[in-house]
């Protein structure tokens, strides 16, 4: 009349893809399991809870956060009391492709965010430049000549400086009158 529940906790549990469960009563390297099941990898299964449920002492209701599967290296040791799963190489490739697509999607989203920020900064700088140019009367003249499509900016600027330039008006003195 022994305690069989203690023996169950001191085992390595390996779940096969078909649903079969294998129990080992000693720590085993993952390479031995991979060697006996070619085309499969050994993965550690851990329960993943959402962050808000980790703080609550109550058990999660209605599902929970799911599981996390981490592939083991051949040199890793399968420890007593843990649950491991055999994963086919096709499933591993699908997972790697999904992770790669996720990273690419995240990189694209980051790039789009950067472009939007650059466009916003450009529109802000253009708006600031427009406000500054409307306050400067020299820039008003340039804008008017550009809108008219006149003979060019350089000629319009020369005309404006001629009109604004102060010229003294002196009457000529004849030498004979002295």
Task: Describe the 3D structure.
By secondary structure, this protein is an alpha+beta fold. The protein has a domain at about 10-90: Roll (Ubiquitin-like (UB roll)). The protein has helices spanning about 5-10, 30-35, 50-55, 90-135, 135-150, 155-165, and strands at about 10-15, 20-25, 30, 40-45, 65-70, 75-80, 85-90. The strands form 2 sheets. Strands 2-1-7-4-5 form a 5-stranded mixed β-sheet. A two-stranded antiparallel sheet has the order 3-6. Helix 5 crosses helix 6. The model is unreliable at about 60-65 (pLDDT under 50). InterPro entries: PADRE_dom (IPR025322). It holds the Pfam family PADRE.
**Unreliable runs:** 58-64
Structural class: alpha+beta
Largest sheet properties:
5 strands, mixed
Strands, total number: 7
Distance between the termini: 148 Å
Percent of residues in helices comes to 40-55%
Order of helices and strands: HEEEHEHEEEHHH
**Mean pLDDT, all residues:** 76
**Radius of gyration over alpha carbons?**
40 Å
Instruction: Based on the coordinates given, report the CATH architecture of the domain at 9-88.
Output: Roll
- The CATH topology assignment of the domain at 9-88 is Ubiquitin-like (UB roll)
Strand order of the largest sheet: 2-1-7-4-5
- Tell me the strand percentage band: 15-25%
CATH top level of the domain at 9-88 is Alpha Beta
Categorize the overall geometry. Answer: rod-shaped
In brief:
InterPro entries: PADRE_dom. With 178 residues, the protein is of the alpha+beta class. The chain is built from 6 helices and 7 strands.
